[in-house]
Design brief:
The protein has three domains: 164 residues, Spore Coat Polysaccharide Biosynthesis Protein SpsA, Chain A (Alpha-Beta Complex), CATH 3.90.550; 70 residues, Tetratricopeptide repeat domain (Serine Threonine Protein Phosphatase 5, Tetratricopeptide repeat, Alpha Horseshoe); 95 residues, Serine Threonine Protein Phosphatase 5, Tetratricopeptide repeat (Alpha Horseshoe), CATH 1.25.40.10. Helix content is 47%, strand content 16%. The protein has 14 helices and ten strands. The mean pLDDT is 96.
């Protein structure tokens, strides 16, 4: 017999294509509640047919936090564990048991592994840990977009890592994210001291290729007294480097790459960005140093986003290039073979392996 009442809640709009697989993934819950925000493709009827409790409400102007808070209100008051997901997300089987194990220790909020993207070969892309499983009371959603749970009780919530929970994001690649930029701009207007929103706005400007706004916003992020999280500061520095590279200013790009690696040396991603940059400069001792520093980090950290390139064949490929140009061809071949093993679909890595094999007469 289950010890806790577990309820899943979600918001959706026009997601009939995902409804059946999502309901199958969520079936371990005692109750599934969905707030539809204006579907025209039959999503509400399909979800009801599959066993969900479905409500409909249209929000204008649209805000993710308002919609999520409304969906949370629809859960039964006696729910013990509340699980917020989107319809394009899927739990691996056994998630409920893992949640209950973690809850046994008095947790009010759970952190669990989330794979946001996948590579063409099916391997994991961006991975990080999220905390959208929580107690029924003393939590609310904040921010118009990139919304997060905020604890409204005294002190801090009791959190726990829920080992064994894995949530995969399997989105519709054609879906627009055009609403994100104006909502992020609104977030910063509403709360100019929120360092997280400032970082996300700068990143969004980068996605749009708005380099000057990206630089201005990310520098504002780094100057904020609230911006003390080294992992996110390093990400802002990496994105600043990317913006400066696109503007043709390689001096500033290098400066921010070096700062990023110094800010968060426990993350592979800054070291890999630096190694790629130095490879373009033909600074092969620097390439080898940065690549080996990245490879010295053996486990994906739980503190921040980890990217596919940094955990696939690229670090080994960069090390191979460094070793080759420093005259250590046997090591170059060994590292290149490992790179090809980890990234078998990468044509550039395959070409490099053939080059090193030829260089050693193999």
């Amino acid at each position: 017999m289950n010890k806790y009442k577990v309820c899943v809640y979600a918001i959706c709009k026009n997601e009939a294509a995902f409804a059946r697989r999502w309901m199958e993934s969520m079936k371990e819950a005692d109750e599934i509640v969905v707030l539809d925000t204006g579907s025209t493709d039959g999503t509400p009827a399909l979800l009801k047919e599959l066993g969900a409790k479905v409500y409909t409400e249209v929000f204008s102007p649209w805000r993710f936090d308002v919609a999520r808070n409304r969906s949370l209100e629809l859960l039964p008051q006696d729910a013990d564990i509340c699980v917020c997901t989107d319809l394009d997300e899927l739990f691996h089987p056994g998630w409920r048991e893992a949640a209950e194990r973690a809850w046994d220790h008095g947790a009010q909020q759970l952190r669990y592994r989330y794979t946001w993207s996948f590579e063409p070969d099916g391997s994991e892309g961006h991975v990080f840990w999220i905390d959208n499983i929580h107690a029924r009371r003393n939590f609310q959603w904040v921010n118009p977009v990139h919304e997060v749970l905020q604890y409204t009780g005294a002190g801090r919530p009791r959190t726990a890592f829920a080992e064994g929970i894995q949530l995969d994001h399997r989105p519709d690649p054609t879906k627009s994210r055009g609403q994100y930029l104006p909502l992020l701009e609104l977030s910063v207007q509403e709360d100019p001291h929120n360092d997280r929103n400032m970082h996300y706005l700068g990143r969004e400007y980068m996605f749009y290729g708005m380099w000057d706004k990206c630089i201005e916003t990310l520098k504002r992020h780094l100057s904020m007294p609230e911006a003390v999280w080294k992992d996110e500061r390093a990400a802002s520095m990496r994105f600043l480097a990317r913006a400066y590279q696109n503007k043709g200013n390689r001096t500033e790009a290098e400066r921010y790459l070096l700062r990023a690696a110094a800010e968060a040396p426990h993350l592979r991603e800054p070291w890999i960005d630096l190694a790629v940059f130095l490879c373009e400069q033909k600074d092969y001792p620097g390439v080898l140093f940065a690549a080996l520093r990245a490879l010295s980090i053996k486990e994906r950290p739980r503190t921040y986003i980890t990217e596919a390139a940094s955990w696939g064949g690229l670090p080994y490929d960069l090390a191979a290039i460094g070793y080759y140009y420093l005259g250590q061809k046997e090591l170059a071949l060994s590292y290149s073979q490992k790179a090809a093993e980890l990234s078998p679909l990468c044509g550039r890595i395959a070409a490099n392996l053939r080059f090193f094999e030829k260089a050693l007469g193999e």
